[in-house]
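Hey, does this match?
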Amino acid sequence: MEATGHGVGQLSIFGYMTDGSTIVAFVFGIFDNRPVSIEPMVMSDTYLSFVSQAIDDHRYAVPNTVEPMVNHPFNGYRRFGARFTAETLKNMIQDINENHRFHGIELVSEDPAAYKFISVGMLHEVSLHDESNNVLKMGVSFKNFQAYKLQ
């Protein structure tokens, strides 16, 4: 990665799931070039609510990796992963519903078993902001991307 100015480069695992009537999402950060610590939180992209956490946090998913979220470039492959448990899904649902109550939005199902995955993927984002001297170059590659349903 090469950066001048205040550009932001991010890499995350993301996914969408539904309880049958409402879609919610998750974003688990792997890389962010800003020197900030990411606390688990609920946000909205205007159309749906999502939870966000660093890949090595435990609030919304249990890390399936020894690699922490990083804010410096690296070369080579590293193994990142996360898994949901009944407890982490309950945390996600409770936090989303707390946010929905505050904003007067319809609540989502409180039953973790009601949720089904719609899609899962890798999210690579680059944001340059509005500076003329802003340059950000970033590349990613991955292999063996897999999603499992465990009983």
About this structure: The mean pLDDT is 84. The two ends are 39 Å apart (CA to CA). Residues 65 and 80 are 5 Å apart (CA to CA). Helices lie at 86-103.
